[in-house]
Structures are given as C-alpha cells and as structure tokens.
Amino acid sequence: MPEYDLAIRGGFVATGFGAALCDIGVKDGRIAAIAEKITEAAHVIAADGLYVLPGGVDSHCHIEEPSRGGYTMSDGEPQVTVNEESFVTASTSAFAGGTTSVVCFVPQWKGFGVWDRYQDYRQRAATGMLDHAFHQIISDPTDAVLNEEVPRLVTEGVRSLKVFLTYEPLHLSDAEFIKVLLTARKLGCLVTVHCENYDAIGWRTQALLAAGLTEPKYHAWSRPRVVEREATHRAIALAELVDQPIQVFHVSCEEAAEEIARAQARGLKVWGETCPQYVSLTAADMDRPGFEGAKFMCSPAPRDTAEHARIWEMIRRGTLNVVSSDHCGFSYGGDKGKAVAGRDASFEKIPNGIPGLAARLPIVFSEGVAKGRIGLEDFVKLTAANPARIMGLYPRKGVILPGSDADIVLWDPAKKVKLTNALMQHAIDYTPYEGMEVTGWPVSTIRRGEVVMRDGKVQAQPGTGRYLPRAPYDLVKPRGITPDGFVPR
Ligand code: URP
Ligand code: ZN
Ligand code: ZN
To answer: Of 9, 478, 14, whose CA–CA distance to 269 is shortest?
Structure first.
C-alpha cells in the first residue's frame, strides 16, 4: 500500500512560508509531507515547470445572497433579489480560477433576525463544492439580535460580522456600529466594514439627480474618495474607542489606505483589503455608451490608473494585505440583475457589485508578479495565507503545511490568456475584465486532495463543499487598551 494517496512532483512550491523546488505528499485529503523526493504514492501529478500554490482563499464573496433592495442608494420598494450566481456555479467559477475556499455573507434584512437566515444560508452553501465560512451581515442591531442570536451563531463557528456604513437598506448609524463593535469584542469576532459615508453619498446623489446627471458614470461622482476616507477614519476611530479589531473592506484609494497605515503604525488591530477592480478598472469604464457602464459599477467606485499605482504601493508596504474579489453576481441582461429597475434607471437604482471569483488570481498574478510589482510569495500571502489568518481559517486553509487541507493550485506562470466571460465559468452573462490580457493561469485545482479542475474542465460533485466553523483565534483578541482604561460593559 503506497504511503501517500497523491504526490505532486517537481513543481516550485510556494507554501505561504517560503518557497522551494520540492514534492508534496497528500494523504486523506491533507498535506502529509513536503520533501525533496516523494516516490510512494498511488497517484502522481507531474508539476515540472509549474508553481504549486495554496488554493486561493477568497474572504469576500457575495454568493446566492437573498437581499431586499440589493446594494443601492435607492429607497424604492424592497424586493427579494438573489443574484444569479448559485453556490454550484460559483464553485465552478472559483475552481476554474484556482480558488478553493470562500467566506461569504449571511444577509440580515432590516426588521428581521439573523438565525433563520443563517440556517437557510447554510443549506444553500451546502449545495456547492467550495469549502465555506460565513460573515454575518448586521443591518438591524437590535438587542435580541446582538444578545441572543449572534451568540448562537458564534457557537456555530461564525466569527466575523459585516457592517455597511452606506447603502439605503443596510447602513448603520455610529451608535449602531458601536453596539456591533461591543458585541464582537465580547464574543471574539472580527468586524469587517464597508467604509463610505451614507449621508454624504445621499446628498451628492440627490444633487446629481437634480442636475439631471443620472447615467452610470455618475455613480463615481456620487462617492468621491473623500467619502471613503472619512468613513475609514471614523470606522477606525470607533473601533479604537471600543478596542475591537476590524478589517476595512475593498479599499479603493490611497487616501483611505493612509488612514489604515496610520492606525497600524499606532499598533491598532486594523487590516485593509483591496480587490482586483481597484488595480485594473477605472471610473472611465462606467462612461461607456448607454447602460454598459453598469457592468463596472461597484462600491467604492473604481478610480483611475494613477490610483492603481498607489494601491500597489500600499500593497507593497503591507498596509493592504488581502486581495479579495468582492464577487457579486448581478447579470447585465435580463430584469433581475443590473437592470432590475430598468435600463434607463438612474445610477442610484442600479445594484452595485461585479463578478470576479475566477478572475481574481489571474489578475493579481499578472498585474503583480508577472509585471514585477510583487514577488510570488507576496502573491500567495495576499490571495491565500493572509485571508486565512485574518479569518481564523489558518492553518487548515491558505498554506501548504503538514496537516493543512490539501487545497492546491498548479499554476503556469508563463501562460498568456485573454480573459473572456466563458473562461469565468460563472452564471453571470458578462465579466468586467473582458479582453484583458493576463500572464499566468491555473492549470489544475485540487480541493482536499481531489482534482476538481484540470485544463479548465471542472469536475466536482455538487454538495461536497464543507462548512468551515471557526474557533476562537488570537488575531481578533482586543488589545486591552481603551481611552482612559475604561472598558464599558
Ligand atoms: O459594489 C459592491 N461592492 N457590491 C457588493 C456589496 C459590497 O458593498 O460589498
Ligand atoms: Zn461593501
Ligand atoms: Zn462586498
């Protein structure tokens, strides 16, 4: 009987903790050995000329998320919309792009609790093939939700809460945000934050509409950098006040990243995430004819190419240490997605969010490693090891270490590919990255020792994705430092 179920031989292995030319032995779905030579294996994959990397961990994905009103600034009729992506199609897309684990969002609708939504969402996620953990969105932080339901979720292994400081149906006031921070502190959860100023965006939006400026491109005008910087500053200040670790989601500009850098320099537990769209798309993309600009509409809005360079600098400095997709699958055609309010709708009625699960690793590798902006090990940290650590999934996910799940992607660093929607393998009818040329491509994805994608062909049984309950972890412990030493109960 061979010692290993699978050996991956001859590749250049970047573990998340260093890189070397070596072999990997897999047993029972986990990494069992990393050695110069592994010979005793039932199956062998030759990885000569390839990089062998941890499967991507995408810690910010909106998948099959039933929402009332979507992500908009419109106060129209609430409606339950599920974006087109299902857990099965998202899993296919993720595997096609080299990602094996996701953290996605259990919604909360204003006026409702979270426990029922959590149970519904667990069932939805169990239909897919991706290993998955959950953030719980808090949009209505009642005492019952914070004191009774969220503690129940924590015993189920939910260890991150998500709050929005903008969007019409979801945004929290400062007082509500503080309540969520206190709850997270008490329960040992991370708080992740969408940082944009709701009132400022609302004011700009009304002014733009009054001036007749309604096309998709005015989405960017409604939310200039300063609204992101202000909310980032405020989120960090309130988190400092409560002594609660936070991760700032989808940082789009240097101004906001500088707030994070200052906090980090002062020793605060504040982390910053950015996304491929903030190093590849621009506000000019939303200025395409007719409704087409809606394809690029996300929040914060994409900026410009000079900002891309500044984001890379913030990545290089470590201020931004995670690159997630913020995958959000609203189709362009049909009447459920971007056009839910009609193709003539003004910008504030168009759902925000773009798909990116499959494109994430190729874009970060191509723009980052292939263009010499970051090294291979930085790439692994940004896309796998750091998200796993920050989300409490490490060392099970995000690294190639003995005992870790054998989630591995074999990567051809030289392959040149022109991105098309078909290559994304999602259920969405477009990709905002259509036509982008990338260097570097996943040739095989392995989830827990099973080859789930080879040469673009995804083969995985629906229903095999596992829930990843998260135990308490040190990274999200408060520092024990509050202003004047006073710790409110
Ligand atoms: O525009 C975006 N980012 N949509 C997804 C929801 C969110 O804000 O994360
Ligand atoms: Zn957001
Ligand atoms: Zn998001």
So the answer is: 478
Q: Of the bound ligands, which one is closest to the alpha carbon of residue 298?
A: 1
How many separate domains does the chain show? 1
In degrees rounded to 5, what are phi and psi of residue 137?
Answer: -70, 135
What's the pTM? 0.98
- For residue 374, give both structure tokens: 């970051």
CATH number at 94 reads: 3.20.20.140
**29 in a domain, yes or no?**
no
Using alpha carbons, select from 157, 192, 151 the residue that is nearest to residue 172.
192
Q: What is the longest distance spanned by two Cα atoms in the chain? A: 75
Q: How far is the CA of 196 from the centre of ligand 3 (A)?
A: 13
> 328 C-alpha to center of ligand 3: Å?
7
H/E stretch holding 225 reads helix 225-242
**Is 362 part of a structural domain of the chain?**
yes
Task: Inform me whether the pLDDT recorded for 23 exceeds 90.
Answer: yes
316 C-alpha vs ligand 2 centroid, how far in Å?
23
- 404 part of a folded domain: no
Closest atom of ligand 1 relative to the 164 alpha carbon:
8
Lowest mean pLDDT among 99-108, 265-274, 333-342, 443-452: 333-342
Range 209-235 average pLDDT? 98
Output the pLDDT for position 4: 98
Give the atom of ligand 1 at the shortest distance from the alpha carbon of 167.
8
What is the CA(382)–ligand 2 centre distance, in A?
A: 19
Average of per-residue pLDDT across 46-60 = 98
Distance CA 114, CA 149 (A): 7
Task: Encode 140-153: b = buried (16+ Cβ within 10 Å), e = exposed.
Answer: bbbeebbeebbeeb
For ligand 1, is residue 62 a contact (CB within 6 Å)? Answer: yes
Q: Is 299 in the pocket of ligand 1 (CB under 6 A)?
A: yes
In a domain, 63, yes or no: yes
Determine the Cα–Cα distance for residues 89 and 128; give it in Å rounded to an integer: 8
353 touches ligand 1 (CB under 6 Å): yes
Q: Grade residue 80 by pLDDT with cuts at 50, 70 and 90.
A: low
